Amino acid sequence: MPMWVIYHSSSTFTSATEKSALATDITKIYTAGGLPPFYVCVHFIPLSPSNFYSSMNEPVPMVRITIQNIARTIQSDAHRDNFLARVDTALKPHIEDKGYDWEYSVLETSRDLWKINGIVPPMPVTEAEGLWKKRNKAVPFEREKGGL
């Protein structure tokens, strides 16, 4: 699952509309690569000024994002560059264009220690993953259809 945790100044992302628009653009990064939409989780963590310090150009609001990828890993320099470019493009209208200082980092964790609703997710580009994508939720599947 991609999980994005967005730590931000309490003066940013103040409406559900703003958050939804950013979460939608983040989800598109992954669905364009074939992942089911429900895999993508975006958490907004607002921090009050007394709990958010940065020496970067104060008093400009700061956004810090951690991205945890489990469902897929980056396999090459070209894939990395493409992924980071898609992240930058998705964030630009929501963060950069608003003049916020920002940074992000990407963590890739082991797929071997991942379950959704107690089910080991199907392997990429399998019939079972296609079913999960179609239904947009985790459902039991036959092992041979999930590549496990």
TrEMBL record:
InterPro entries: Cis-CaaD-like, Tautomerase/MIF_sf
Gene3D superfamilies, per the entry: Macrophage Migration Inhibitory Factor (3.30.429.10)
Residue spans crossing the bilayer: none
Chain ranges of the Tautomerase cis-CaaD-like domain: 1-137
Top-level lineage group: Eukaryota
Name of the molecule in the record: Tautomerase cis-CaaD-like domain-containing protein
